[in-house]
Amino acid sequence: MTTTFGHRRPMLSPSILNADFARLGEIVRELEEAGADAIHLDVMDGRFVPNISFGLPVVTALRQVTTLPLDVHLMIVEPERYLAAFAEAGATAITVHVEASIHLHRTVHMIHELGVLAGVALNPATPLAAIEEILPFVDLVLVMTVDPGFGGQSLIPAVLRKLERLRRIVDEAGLHCLLSVDGGVKLSNIEAVVRAGADVVVTGSALFQSDQTPGQELQRFRDALQQALSG
Ligand code: DX5
Ligand code: ZN
Q1: Residue 119 in contact with ligand 1 by CB distance below 6 A
Q2: What pLDDT is attached to residue 2?
Q3: Which of the ligands is closest to the CA of residue 201?
Q4: What is the CATH number of the domain that holds 207?
Q5: Marked catalytic residue, from 45, 139, 182, 199
Q6: CA distances from 92 to 70, 118, 213 (A)
Q7: Average pLDDT of adjacent 10-residue blocks, the chain of 231 residues
Q8: Domain presence at residue 134
Q9: What's the confidence (pLDDT) of residue 85?
Q10: Which residues line ion ligand 2, judged by CB < 5 Å?
Q11: Which of 156, 160, 204, 224 is 20 to 30 Å apart from 146, CA to CA?
């Protein structure tokens, strides 16, 4: 099972939440061929967030379709109930929300015991203080730049200041966790997202709203990343 999360920084982890679900396998293959570093899978239970998306069968099916890391984002209450099932389904990384995890240190340990990378997500209004103690134990921090539950929302610019502060904390402490940004990332703001300190960029609806194919659109994001780095 893949237990690394790509090798080049910043990485692209496209979200398939707004994809045509009738063509999901094809689209994931296309994103892999276009150079995605991982596939971001948004699991929603209709309780932690006001939307229901998909669950274990989709993760299991997509595991058969791609060798890319599956970056599973659990927007569910009591996520510890499903860690083994998502690991079994083929998750490479499981990210739980700090707002949904009463015993976060135990949950992160459980994810690692399953041989899976552990991530913690925090909503726009959740302060960094809520995750500061868990930072040395996680592999990924998912900084939500929208209120979770739906694709196609606008990035909340103030959260990039939070990301900058988190970047400084992680770098000064010499921690290994990757910083991922999720929500409202477009070609128009990806440079600001990278400059604020993202190692991983999640982008979803932007890939499925243009006249280009998702693979072509992802290539445009890759080009924009290179430009941001060389700029
Ligand atoms: C929102 C999800 C995001 C979303 C990203 O709750 O966590 O991953 O699908 O999609 P865009 O890029 O459309 O905001
Ligand atoms: Zn997500």
Answers
A1: no
A2: 45
A3: 1
A4: 3.20.20.70
A5: 182
A6: 5, 9, 26
A7: 60 97 98 97 98 98 98 98 98 98 98 98 98 98 98 98 98 97 97 96 96 96 89 69
A8: yes
A9: 98
A10: 42, 73, 182
A11: 224
Q: Would 5 be classed as within a structural domain?
A: no
pLDDT confidence of residue 9 = 75
Q: Decide whether any atom of ligand 1 lies within 6 Å of the 185 Cβ.
A: yes
Q: Would you state the pLDDT for residue 210?
A: 84
In a domain, 4, yes or no: no
Concatenate the DSSP letters of all residues of 129-198 into one string: GGTTTTGGG-SEEEEESS-SS-SSPPP-THHHHHHHHHHHHHHHHT---EEEEESS--TTTHHHHHHTT-
| Overall pTM surpassing 0.85 (yes/no) | yes
Q: Is residue 182 annotated as a catalytic residue, yes or no?
A: yes
What tokens were used for 107?
Answer: 């949950």
Give the residue numbers spanning the domain of 47: 11-230
* Nearest bound ligand to the CA of residue 93: 2
Report the pLDDT value the prediction gives residue 228, as an integer from 0 to 100.
83
What pLDDT score does 5 carry?
63
Find, among 19, 3, 9, the residue nearest to 205 by Cα: 19
Cα within 13 Å of Cα(165), Cβ side: 11
Counting ligand 1 atoms within 8 A of each CB, the residue from 18, 39, 146 with the most, and so the one to mutate, is 146
Instruction: Determine whether the shortest distance from the Cβ of 97 to ligand 1 is under 6 A.
Output: no
Structurally, the chain folds into a number of domains equal to: 1
